[in-house]
Amino acid sequence: MSNQWRRYLFWFAHEHVDFRLAELDSILNLFNIKLKTIYKPKSDPYWIVELPSECAVQKIASRSISLRFCMELWGNSKDVDILHKNLRSKAEEIIKPYFSNDKSFKIIVETFCKHFTQNEKIQKIETFSYLPFQGTVKLKNPDTTLLYIEYYGLDPNAIPEKPYELFFGRWIADGQRDLIQKLSLKTRKFIGNTSMDPQLSLLMANQAQVKRGDIVLDPFVGTGSLLVAASHFGGYTFGTDIDFLMLHGRTRPSRITQKTRGEDESVASNMEQYGKGSYYLDVVVSDFSRPMWRSDMRVDSIITDPPYGIREATERVGTLKTHPVIEEHQAATHIPSKIVYGLPQIFQDLLNFSAKHLKVDGRLVCWFPLYRDHYSEGQLPNHPCLFLIGNSEQVLSKYTSRRLLTYKKIRDPLDGDAITSSNIVDFREKYFALGDETRKERRLKRAEERARNKEDWERSNRESTER
Ligand SMILES: C[S@@+](CC[C@H](N)C(=O)[O-])C[C@H]1O[C@@H](n2cnc3c(N)ncnc32)[C@H](O)[C@@H]1O
Q: Which segments constitute the Ribosomal RNA large subunit methyltransferase K/L-like methyltransferase domain (predicted)?
C-alpha cells in the first residue's frame, strides 16, 4: 500500500445529496484524515480529491453510507483520445506495478445515465489493450480491478451524444451501502410507523462519529432504529420513550399483513437479529421533560428524532389543573395525565440536556422539522455550549422539510447558560393550521371542478338537442 498523496475519485449514490459533505467531514474528522479537494461539483455524484495514503481511502470507505466506491484516478478527460494519451504516458510509471504474471485483473465499464450492451462494453474495454497487462483475467476477486467510467450527466431526458466526463483508474473500496439492505425495515423484527430508515439512521451514526466502545443515547427511542445503526459501529446503546406500549412491543402492528404483534417483538430482539445484542444496554419508559438521570451521567453521543406531533403524540407528563391532588388510595394505580409538549420546549430541553450530559467534544445529532419558505438559520435551536457543525436538508414535500442538525459540545455549561426557544417555530401548530387551509383550498378546487363539469355537460346536452 502506497504512502504518498495521490489522486482519487469518490463516487456517491445520487441520493440525499445534501448529506454528503457533512458525512464526509464527520468521517475525516473521526479518523483525523486531511483531504485536498481538487474538484467538487455541486450536484454531480463524484468528487476528485487527493489523500495522503490508500489506507486513508479504505478508512473513509469503511464508514461512508453516501459513497458508492472510491478509485485511484489514473486518467480523467472530457475527450476519449486525450484520456488514452494520458494513460499511455503513465502506463510505465503508475500502472505497470499492478500488472505482473502472477497478478490477476479485470476491467469494469460503468456508464451513467446511458445504457450500453455487454458487447459495446467489451469493445470499450478493448480500447485499453495498450496497457501493460500480463496476468490472467479473473472476474471474481481479482488482484486488481480497473474501472472505466463514462458520465452522461443526471438528466435522463437530455442524454448527450458523447459523455461529459471520462474516468479511468484502479478500484480501491466500496462504501457501506450494503448495510442499507442488511438493516432493511422490510426484514426487521420490530418496526413501527415511526421507524427511521436504515440509510438515514446510519448517516446519523456517522454524524455522531460513533465508534467502538462509545455510549450512545436516544431519548426518543421509539422502535430503536437509531440504536441499531449506532451499535453497528460499535456503540453501546440505550434509550428512553414515554410510550409504554411501544417499548413493550404492544402497539398496533404497522405491517398490513400482520394482525397482532409477535411475542418477541422489541428493541432488544432487533439488536439480537443483527448480532448486536451485546451492544444493547436497555430502554426505559420515561418522560424526557423530566429526566431521571444522575447529574454526572455522561454519554459520548445523543442521536434522536424527536416527535413532531404529526404521526405520534408530542406529550409530556403534566396537568393544567392548578392544584392537582392525588389521594393516597389512588397513588399505587395512578396513571399521570399528560399535556402537550410543544416543539420549542422539546428542543429547549434537548439542547439543555445535551449540554449537560454529553462529554466535551461529544455530539448531538437530531432532526428538526420546518416549513421551507420560512427557513432561516436563526430559527434553528442554539445553545452556548453546542456548536452547530452539520445542517443537511431532507425535503419532505413542496412545503416541508426536516434538517439533520449536528452539534458538538464545546464546553460544560455555566450557571445561566441556556437555549432560548423564542425563535423556534412550532412545526406542529403550523402544520395543522396550514393543513386546514390546504384542505379548504382542495375542497374549493373540487367544487369549482364539479361546477365546470356540470356546465360542460349541460352545454354538450344543449348542443346535441339543437343538432
Ligand atoms: C419520531 S419518534 C422516534 C422514532 C424512532 N427513531 C424509531 O426509529 O422508531 C418520536 C418518539 O418520541 C416519543 N415521545 C413523545 N413524547 C415524549 C416524551 N415526552 N418523552 C419521551 N419520549 C417521547 C414518542 O413516543 C415516539 O416514539
A: 187-316
Write the pLDDT tens digit of every residue in 268-308.
999 999 999 999 999 999 999 999 999 999 999 999 999 98
Q: List, in order, residues 6 or more apart from 115 with CB less than 8 Å away.
A: none
C-beta atoms surrounding 360 within 10 Å: 11
**The CATH number of domain 181-318+335-430, selected from 3.20.20.10, 3.40.50.300, 3.40.50.150, 3.40.190.100:** 3.40.50.150
**What phi and psi, each to the nearest 5 degrees, are found at residue 109?**
-110, 125
- Please state, for a pLDDT cut of 70, what percent of the chain lies above it: 91
Distance 307 CA to ligand 1 centre (A): 5
* Domain spans of the chain, in order of start: 6-176, 181-318+335-430
pLDDT in tens, 384-422: 999 999 999 999 988 899 999 999 999 999 988 877 656
Whether residue 243 has its Cβ less than 6 Å from ligand 1: yes
Which tens digit of pLDDT belongs to each residue from 184-218?
999 999 999 999 999 999 999 999 999 999 999 99
**Is the Cα dihedral 155, 156, 162, 164 positive or negative?**
positive
User: 220 CA distance to ligand 1 centroid (A)?
Assistant: 4
d(CA 142, CA 125): 16
Q: What is the CATH number of domain 6-176?
A: 3.30.2130.30
Question: Is residue 2 within 8 Å of 53, Cβ to Cβ?
Answer: yes
230 lines ligand 1 (CB under 6 A): no
Tell me the best of 312, 340, 343 to mutate to test the pocket of ligand 1, counting ligand atoms within 8 Å of each CB and taking the most.
Answer: 312
